[in-house]
Design a protein that fits this description.
2 copies of one chain form a homodimer. Chain A has about 270 residues and is of the alpha/beta class. Chain A has 11 helices and 12 strands.
């Protein structure tokens, strides 16, 4: 068979990636850089964005609808590129789907435990992610650790407003981060896919010995591993594509999405969700 | 007939009020104070909140679904207690519904034109409201006026975070308001139902001669007029009620809603929207 190389199976079906809006594009960007032969389909649920303030039931419902859409597009693996959806919907999606499903919380937690020396880890995220306690549980499943959480509800609107480098953002970062610094953390998990855009202002306000964990990178590493283990890697022989779907406002997605994604977002289609 | 007083018809059916989330409670509060005999039903579309960043099509779709729910509850009048939904959905709802529909933009615009002496009016609102140009058009329909708009996307998350009295909010207000002050406005329309909670910090940052227009009050005045004209006022002889429905997170609505509403919010029901 043409699709076999050295007994290794090839699968050129796309990877499906979803998020409540733009944030997951930081994850898609990392996957695209590390695995340039893969076809990628992104779904941004911009009709319901943000997930961070929604209930568990609602986020599970939205996630199931998006996943049904991705499965129709014959995805071989699904990445939940959203911390809130990973916190709420990952277990149920893993149970019900035949394709592998990867969230951002487990890879981020693993990376944090790997890096932390004093076992004092800070986690910043949306209200939903923090209230779910998903990082707290996941990190402690790997190793008994002191985890200090802080919800930062203003970070997403600040990033979307484009104020990633302003004095105001600096003050807000200081206010949110202070209680974590008081706990003497040596590792800080960016528990929201918007937050990598605040990396510079965060770095300015923490000690140099504190390591920032960007779950986009950790998740990409996990995606690569799973594709490898399950012989699902693409060989690039089929035409390579990046597709973008949203549930609202494709035009806005194109414009703002540019800040989150490393390449130009050329074509965005709107899908009506029920 | 019992329902006639001095040839005046009475209607004890409820008034329906809707918004994307909590903000409309400032309008409901004003209506409840001015018309204490009226039964009120509130719907907060917390599964889709905020509307300010959503497209026109999406906001119209959400509004139609909510209105269908309110009509089922036999409302005699509908108040769109949300600037974005008023901007996008009012004309189509007024065309298709048999009951009167009142938005917040026309009453706010009337009040602003009435107050302004130099015909330089500032309008602050969400991205959606500002992009729709609804106040600009409405004000100029009444009288040719210079209208200066400013989108303030951080105001809603600041209010919901409860930071209505912080130094950070003060800086953000200054940044957003400055371009309007430079235009020498004498009237400022609070074009979002969350903004009355920022009244104090706004007043601190504008000249004393600038009048703030809170559309909750202007809208209540309009509601009273329409009920009067159409002989729809209640007489309070039926048991008086305030009912609250949301599309997500009733518990959170109860807690945060308290800041927006003058009375305790005792019972909130969740409704699944399709």
């Amino acid at each position: 068979m043409q699709n076999k190389q050295k007994n290794k199976k090839i699968n050129n079906n796309p990877i499906g990636i979803f998020d409540s809006g733009f944030g997951g594009l930081t994850v898609m960007s990392a996957i695209n850089k590390a695995l340039p032969l893969e076809n990628l389909i992104y779904f941004g649920d911009t009709a319901h964005v943000p997930y961070g303030t929604k209930s568990k039931d609602a986020v599970i419902k939205f996630s199931k609808e998006i996943v049904a859409f991705l499965i129709e597009h014959k995805v071989k693996l699904i990445v939940i590129a959203c911390n809130t959806a990973s916190a709420f919907a990952l277990p149920i999606l893993q149970k019900t789907l035949k394709v592998p499903v990867i969230g951002v919380i487990e890879p981020g937690s693993k990376a944090a435990v790997h890096v932390s020396k004093n076992k004092k880890i800070g986690v910043i995220g949306t209200e939903g992610t923090v209230q779910s306690g998903a990082y707290l549980k996941e990190i402690n499943k790997i190793k008994k650790t002191n985890v200090y959480q802080q919800a930062c509800p203003l970070f997403v609107p600040l990033v979307e407003e484009g104020w990633t480098n302003s004095e105001i953002t600096n003050s807000i970062v200081q206010k949110y981060i202070k209680p974590l610094l008081n706990k003497n953390i040596d590792t800080l998990v960016l528990g929201c896919t918007h937050y990598p855009l605040l990396r510079k202002v965060l770095e300015k306000n923490i000690n140099k010995n504190i390591v920032l964990i960007d779950s986009a990178k950790a998740t990409t590493h996990e995606v690569k591993n799973v594709l490898n283990q399950k012989s699902l890697l693409a060989d690039g022989k089929q035409k390579n594509f990046l597709k973008f779907y949203v549930s609202d406002n494709p035009k806005k997605f194109k414009t703002i999405g540019r800040r989150f994604f490393s390449k130009k977002i050329s074509d965005v289609k709107k899908i009506e969700m029920e």
